[in-house]
Amino acid sequence: MTQSLRCRGWRQEGLLRLLENVLAVGERPDQLIVYASLAKAARDWPSFHAIVAALKDLREEETLVIQSGKPVARLRTHAQAPLVVMANCNLVGRWATPEYFYELQSKGLIIWGGLTAAAWQYIGSQGVIQGTYEIFAAIAERHYGGSLKDRFILTAGLGGMGGAQPLAGLMAGARILVVEADEAQIDKRIARGFLQQKARSLEEALACSGSVGLPGNAADLFPEILQRGLVPDIVTDQTAAHDLRYGYLPQGYTLEHWRELRESQPEKVMHDAGTSIAREVRAMLEFQRRGSIVFDNGNNIRSQAKQYGVENAFDIGIFTEAYLRPLFCQGIGPFRWMALSGNPQDIARLDELAMREFPEQTRWIELARQYIPVEGLPARIAWLGHGQRTQLAVKANQLVARGEIGPIAFSRDHLDAASMTHPNIMTENMRDGSDAICDWPLLNAMVSCSSMADLVTIHSGGGGYAGYMTSSGLTLIADGTEAATCRLKLTLDNDTGLGVLRYADAGYELAQQTAQRHGLGGIGLFDAEGRAL
Ligand code: NAD
User: Fold this and answer.
1) 132 lines ligand 1 (CB under 6 A)
2) With a threshold of 0.85, does the pTM exceed it?
3) What is the DSSP string of 49-99?
4) Confidence tier at 441 by pLDDT (50, 70, 90)
5) What does CATH list as the number for 10-124+325-517?
6) Per-domain residue ranges for the chain?
7) Atom of ligand 1 nearest to the CA of 319
């Protein structure tokens, strides 16, 4: 890609390239859909074009305001203010239901922005590959003596996010079978290098080594595998079960029939999807009883199953509490960087820097270099903690300043320490019972604005996530300037710092120790007598 600018500076150009990139690597760009069934990059095509035009003309002293994917204002602010602020899909409590969301969506008033779709932070499957790999690696550590070699993973869904599972499983050393209702998705993942083989039957799939996609419905095939007496080592699911209308193929439906009926008879489709999910989750529970490690991978499948009669659906654990919370307590989470020039050499250079600075990341980065194909703008994700993110970003900005690499964008997933409330994913079973309090992501977004991030966004759930979640996101452009160094330092340190304090406040000793080690005690941490911890 060219170094030439279409905007007034790299900050604006960087954000524009990120918007273009989420569509380039997204699932259905013609409909502006990036992933997760309906998660969009912009409200509609006129909004998309208006955003592009605004970014091209935007001055440093202005802020573009975006409401659910539609640009609504260009305000005069100042050069230290964010260039773009967004709020996507936020509904007040009583109205935050799937039905009301669909109604507003059909009127063109709102979109579901996913976590990183409307925020233009999605980098293709790599982000979720790393997240899934971290979970598999943590399971290996905890249950299988540190290795998944010769272990068998059963899962479903090869969509925008779920498509990461076969590669993550392979990278962790396991054999992995993914059930997928839409055969075209299997072919697509094979073509993109994320999946090795397609099976024609369950027998063939079970005989395969490596990663294999099996066409079929998980609600049929999970119980069938169970009936054969097989007990996989790990079982999960990443269909878009969060969305009963558009995300989960009900049993007995063809794809064509489903696409037709979800418009003409949405209530029937939602009911049939719920019943089918219940069947799949019953099989997952039985796998768990027989010894499989079973976890919910963030698609609300347990909530849907419970609603459809599986009282003990929550006997299945959530991946965050089980495996990731200790990392969040240390401010470690899914940090990512993208080469805005489009030059893969820039990422190679930063890979070397990251491996030198953080040797504990070496294995992941080497695996990523070996297995992860470039999608859209070259990018890398690594789970870095408080202080580490700033260290890397500031050094990268110096390389940009010296002209050794092109400008770099830094961002993170919304599923990070301070930035998400989702009582059935991120904040389930918080030690102090603060699961549903969404002050933290709101505070996080405000702190990011105060810290001069280039883009700041607040999202809430749509479809089946309506009423379930609120999250915040941020993006920074390292353009080699002194001002960028300042933005990077303040934003990245405050972001992870607030995250550590969020868990410290909830009573997690690991977070309290991390806060003390980094001098983050502040005023939030005090004992019953009000003494600073
Ligand atoms: P997607 O809509 O792109 O893909 C879903 C896939 O599931 C499709 O390929 C579809 O054909 C398949 N599918 C639907 N019903 C099926 C069935 N009954 N049997 C087998 N396959 C079926 O969605 P996505 O972007 O891959 O996201 C999947 C889910 O993961 C979503 O609920 C999303 O919100 C969630 N998610 C979780 C995390 C996380 O934090 N772990 C991150 C991102 C997304």
Assistant:
1) no
2) yes
3) HHHHHHHHH--TTEEEEEETTEEEEEEE--TTS-SEEEEES---GGG-SHH
4) very high
5) 3.40.1770.10
6) 10-124+325-517
7) 41
